[in-house]
């Protein structure tokens, strides 16, 4: 029978006999207030029924809950939003769609705005909301409105009315729509009450687009063309990739006027800067293919991305690095002035897209925004509170606040000190569902393997510990055979510095205990720190146990140093 052990961290002293409260508590955590940038230190956060039930000053001896998470020295903030996401077409298998949605979650993205809708995405949206599907919250556009799908005023009335009745969150505007047809799209959209967003058709132009009150303009589309003086007498259709061809003609003194128009008409901007630093940029496909996140995409997709990049920026395309540098500088100037000019900014990278891997590309986008001289807080706001304002959902998500849905990320360090700390997750919460880093790492390894890749270790420690990664089943105590009458199954997962262990009663098929956290390995010495636990293993929370470790092919032997746990495990995955 298990005995009560006082954990090392005094604040986690819990009586084994205490009845656990319903829900989850994050103990002694630092909260990032995304509205002010202030850090609220030493808070206890209770989550119940998918929402933040309470936030209070840390108690030295908090009540036990069904799930307890040690947040000491960690930072809690709202989950991020990817405001230019793509959900795979239903022609992809369901497993591939679920993998893409998980890649967003794995990077702390708890809300996505799908920018190329399909009827099946309405079903996915509902399944994500109900919790049936592990997924970020989904907002989805209609199918594309473009020069081929909407060719007349009559088409505009019919299509817009139909998509509004179908329940799409907004209309997706693509290139090619003629101005007369576009104006009818706008008129009908306002009549039936559905917003529209996306690209700026060449025949429409940026100024008319802004006056038409887009909900958002993505990619900063049309802005560079809007900097070309009328005296240049260009053909609008000769603009190239998002205005690249007009770069030498751009008059940057016109930027302030466009910024003022954007703010006046309350149009939000989704920069997708990473798209222009990866796909349309002087970096080779082979260099991009060597980046670690590519292992999470199917080989066929990567091959297609390579072809598309070469077709866009290869030697035969007329792409010039010198002109791109000016093009990129203008884009960064636009981003900076839009932000400083009070225009609403939304975090979005356009993924999956050429060499933009879902979830991972948001961190590439953040790097681009930092280079455009946005502050860490401004960038975090563009991915948290701003999307909530954009969707008129400030009472639902976007802050760590009582009553809001528990869409949260738990970080090992303060992101305001270094934005790379956003990559250093210890857990994600989606509507209160706790996803520890060990589960994220395990699923990522499975996705990489499924796509025909071997998970690449990025650090010397990861390479050394690679033989530990996987799922292990308890076999016996060291030196003994398993008891024939064993009534439990014990499973341990190790995944790049994180671990978890679950024990299930064979007779009832019910989970008994579940706990986990971080591990460290120093040659043959192995330590496990418990940072989360369920109500049946609370006595372990805060403890660190030391073992001698031996790995022999598919057998793992742990010999307790400061404890009497001498165990033999066999690999099952």
Automatic annotation (TrEMBL):
GO terms for molecular function: hydrolase activity, acting on carbon-nitrogen (but not peptide) bonds. It comes from the Bacteria. Pfam families: Amidohydro_1. Residues 75-433 form the Amidohydrolase-related domain. Keywords: Hydrolase. InterPro entries: Amidohydro-rel, Metal-dep_hydrolase_composite, Metal_Hydrolase, Metallo-dep_Hydrolase. This is Amidohydrolase family protein.
């Amino acid at each position: 029978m298990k005995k009560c052990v006082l954990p090392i961290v005094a604040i986690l002293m819990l009586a084994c006999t205490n009845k656990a409260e319903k829900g989850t508590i994050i103990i002694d955590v630092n909260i990032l207030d995304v509205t002010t940038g202030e850090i609220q230190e030493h808070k206890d956060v209770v989550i119940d029924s998918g929402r933040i039930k309470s936030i209070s000053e840390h108690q030295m001896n908090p009540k036990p809950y069904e799930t307890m998470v040690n947040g000491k020295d960690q930072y809690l903030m709202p989950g991020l939003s990817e405001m230019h996401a793509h959900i795979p077409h239903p022609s992809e298998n369901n497993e591939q769609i679920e993998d893409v949605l998980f890649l967003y979650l794995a990077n702390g993205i708890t809300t996505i705005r799908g920018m190329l809708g399909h009827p099946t995405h309405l079903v996915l949206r509902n399944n994500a909301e109900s919790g049936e599907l592990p997924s970020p919250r989904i907002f989805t556009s209609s199918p594309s409105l473009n020069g081929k799908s909407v060719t007349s005023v009559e088409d505009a009335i019919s299509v817009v009315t139909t998509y509004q009745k179908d329940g799409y969150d907004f209309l997706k505007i693509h290139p090619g729509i003629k101005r007369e047809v576009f104006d009818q799209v706008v008129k009908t959209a306002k009549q039936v009450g559905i917003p529209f967003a996306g690209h700026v058709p060449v025949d429409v132009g940026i100024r008319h687009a802004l006056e038409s009150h887009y909900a958002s303009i993505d990619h900063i589309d049309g802005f560079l063309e809007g900097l070309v003086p009328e005296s240049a007498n260009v053909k609008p259709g000769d603009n190239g990739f998002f205005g690249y061809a007009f770069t030498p003609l751009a008059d940057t003194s016109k930027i302030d006027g466009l910024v003022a128009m954007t703010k006046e008409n309350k149009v939000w901007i989704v920069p997708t800067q990473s798209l222009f630093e990866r796909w349309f940029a002087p970096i080779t496909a082979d260099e991009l293919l060597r980046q670690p996140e590519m292992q999470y995409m199917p080989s066929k997709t990567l091959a297609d991305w390579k072809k598309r990049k070469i077709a866009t920026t290869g030697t035969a395309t007329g792409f010039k690095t010198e002109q791109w540098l000016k093009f990129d500088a203008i884009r960064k100037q636009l981003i900076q002035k839009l932000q400083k000019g009070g225009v609403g900014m939304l975090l979005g990278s356009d993924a999956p897209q050429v060499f933009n891997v879902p979830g991972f590309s948001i961190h590439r986008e953040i790097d681009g925004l930092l280079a455009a001289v946005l502050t860490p807080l401004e960038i975090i706001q563009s991915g948290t509170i701003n999307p909530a304002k954009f969707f008129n959902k400030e009472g639902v998500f976007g802050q760590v606040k009582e009553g809001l849905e528990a869409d949260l990320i738990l970080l090992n360090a303060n992101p305001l000190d270094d934005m790379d700390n956003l990559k250093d997750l210890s857990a994600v919460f989606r509507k209160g569902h706790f996803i520890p880093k060990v589960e994220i790492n395990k699923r990522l390894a499975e996705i990489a393997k499924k796509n025909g890749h071997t998970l690449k270790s990025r650090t010397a420690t990861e390479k050394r510990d690679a033989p530990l990664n996987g799922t292990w089943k308890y076999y016996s105590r060291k030196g003994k055979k398993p008891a024939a009458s064993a009534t439990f199954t014990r499973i341990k997962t190790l995944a790049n510095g994180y671990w978890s262990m679950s024990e299930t009663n064979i007779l009832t098929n019910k989970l008994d205990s579940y706990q986990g956290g971080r591990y460290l390995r120093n040659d043959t010495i192995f330590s496990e720190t418990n940072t989360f636990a369920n109500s049946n293993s609370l006595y372990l929370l805060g403890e660190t146990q030391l073992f001698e470790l031996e790995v022999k092919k598919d057998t793992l032997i742990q010999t307790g140093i400061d404890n009497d746990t001498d165990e033999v495990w066999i690999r099952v995955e």
